[in-house]
Amino acid sequence: MCHATPIFAGNCLCAAVVLLAFQVWTVCGQPVVRNNLNGTFDIWAAGSDPRGLPPYHPQVTMYFCGAATMEMELDCNVIRSQNAPIDYMLRAGMAVPPNPAAAVVDGAPRNSLPVNVNWFNWPPIHFTGNQVDAGAQTFIYGLVHGLNTYNGLTYMNPSYRPGMGTSLDDIAVGLNLMDSPGNGAGPHNYVAYNVVPPALDLATRLRYQDWANRTMVAGLRQLGIPAAAMVQSGAHWICVIGVQTNQDPGNPVVNPGYKIYGFWIRDPATGYLAANPMFDKHNKRIWGLGALKFLSTKINPRRFLAAQTEEDFWEFQFDPASGPLFPLFGFGFGFKFEVEPIGPIALDTGNNGQYNSIPDPSPILTNAPLSAAQALVIASNTVAGESFLAQDQGFTNGTWDVANAMIVQHPTDGTNEGDWFIPYEGAGGTNQVLGYAMVDMETGDVDEIVWMNPDDTVPSMTLADSEAAVYDESNGIGLGDNMEEPQLTISATRTNSVVLSWTDPSVGTNAFAFSLQQTLSLSSTNWMTLTNKPNNVGGVNQIELPVSGVSSFFRLVNPLSGP
After folding, report:
1. Are 73 and 175 in contact (CB under 8 A)?
2. Residue 562 lies inside a defined structural domain of this protein
3. Could you tell me if 99 and 20 lie in one domain?
4. Fewer C-beta within 10 Å: the chain N or C terminus?
5. Range of the domain at 177
6. Buried/exposed 545-555: b ≥16 CB within 10 Å, e otherwise
7. Is the pLDDT reported for residue 12 higher than 50?
8. Dihedral of the CA atoms 388, 391, 394, 400 (nearest 10)?
9. Do 323 and 390 fall into the same domain?
10. Given a cut of 90, is residue 450 above it in pLDDT?
11. Percent helix, strand and coil across the chain, each to the nearest 5
């Protein structure tokens, strides 16, 4: 089955421009469904962790986010019950109980920085016969970087060689190599999507992102298999393990006008950063999005219009990524994700755009802005009304700490806009934060929930680290480990101009120090370096450019490797 032979077979599988898959028959699975008191439904992929969810796997190196996301997607009941070799690998060779610690399966996270000898400091792979029983994440990464084989096949995108991040096609091809009849492996069918909006205006971006959201929900609802989403403008991969919606999963007739209220995600970076305290920015540790987190899709209309972009918490992360140049797979500025869809692999466009799953904008409360005490009531009632959260260890035997609540704002928020951050603490007080909620000051929406259990990879955080985590998230600071060059985003402002943004090289371990160049014609070689220094906003470089009648083209240049 699996071999650690260093074989490069870059063209052994074919990539399409928009979708990449082995088109085979899919075996159906069953998701976990929980009914909430407010009439919504949580649909989860089922797994073997104590909560009944897919176990958490932190990435074991700085740039293994894609491999860790693939591993969490495979580590669900639907796949493991139908794929004995994968079950063997994720159960560490059957020598331990069904839910071994991630360190048993993958090895402990290791320091790996791009400028020193630890760059290839990976946990070793161990085989029993031809079966992997340790170093699973290293094996998965090597499989899609031309180093390992599965049933004699390997894969590598030439733009993402060993020691770099994991591309969109890597995700889908790797999963198909390990769990598709196309490679004699398993019964499932994985598809990579790059949903490229034909225009960058707000309405078009929202419509195309809604199609991406709906497609991920369709896979979760029908199969109970997680999805992979590229976030932070292409800098990172996360695993989407659940969704909250008003669509009754028990009803065989799907209401095409159903709404999506948020996604439940696992960020593989959080466990890695917990084990590597050297990652900091502005004297604050970077923590990632959380090992288990809810990100809301509800919209505050004031914050939404001020930002002129997707200013709810899910869209703030799941935004378009630049991707490589044509003709490489995944090219173009689009929403990049992977899902195991049942049946046809076309996007769920809501009957060709007739329906969308975006919630109606939330009303501004008459008593806005809320006080911390009022936000606390909303947070505690929301947790009590969530059938899953109300019974979870993370939100039992602790107390909400309203005295240490604080207001967290996005850079575009105005006066009295933002979210109340309210920590939930165990017996250790501010040294043992077990979870927290983010409550919109104007609408009362719970935009975000994070929680931890004593046996989790990250069992708790300090108050200072929790505050740093929400600060980083709201200001776009992340690990930046996937290195989707150039990580450039474009957004319109309310004036007659556009803003170009890219991650500051000092954030996390981003090794690329880009400079901005401009030309008036793509046929010209006369690229001029702009002398106006970018502004640094929360770890993101930004340059505002006026829109004129003259065509202008811009590029970011890495002095180490060229444009």
Report:
1. yes
2. no
3. yes
4. C
5. 2-353
6. beeeeeeeebe
7. no
8. 100
9. no
10. yes
11. 25, 25, 50
Whether 73 and 30 map to the same domain: the answer is: yes
Instruction: Specify the pLDDT at position 5.
Output: 34
How many domains is the chain partitioned into structurally?
A: 3
- E strands, 279-412, where? 280-281, 284-285, 293-296, 335-339, 399-400, 406-408
Q: Are residues 209 and 143 in the same domain?
A: yes
Q: Which long-range contacts (CB under 8 A, 24 or more apart) does 246-250 make?
A: 246/39, 246/40, 246/41, 247/41, 247/217, 247/221, 248/41, 249/31, 249/33, 249/41, 249/43, 249/221, 250/33
From CA 219, how far away is CA 44, in angstroms rounded?
Answer: 11
- CA–CA dist 162, 146 (Å, integer): 8
Residue that finishes a domain, picked among 425, 447, 474? 474
Phi, psi of 73 (to 5 degrees): -65, -40
278 within some domain: yes
Residue 358 in domain: no
Q: Is the peptide bond before 486 cis (omega within 30 degrees of 0)?
A: yes
> Are residue 131 and residue 260 in the same domain, yes or no?
yes
Asked if residue 410 lies in contact with residue 418, where contact means CB atoms within 8 angstroms, the answer is yes
| Stated pTM of the model | 0.82
Is the distance from CB of 408 to CB of 438 less than 8 angstroms? yes
Over residues 17-29, the pLDDT tens digits come to: 244 444 444 445 6
Phi and psi of 298, rounded to 5°?
A: -70, 150
Token pair belonging to 344: 């046809």
Q: Which of 258, 436, 476, 441 is nearest to 362 (CA)?
A: 441
- State which of 318, 353, 388 marks the end of a domain: 353
Helix (H) or strand (E) holding 193: strand 191-195
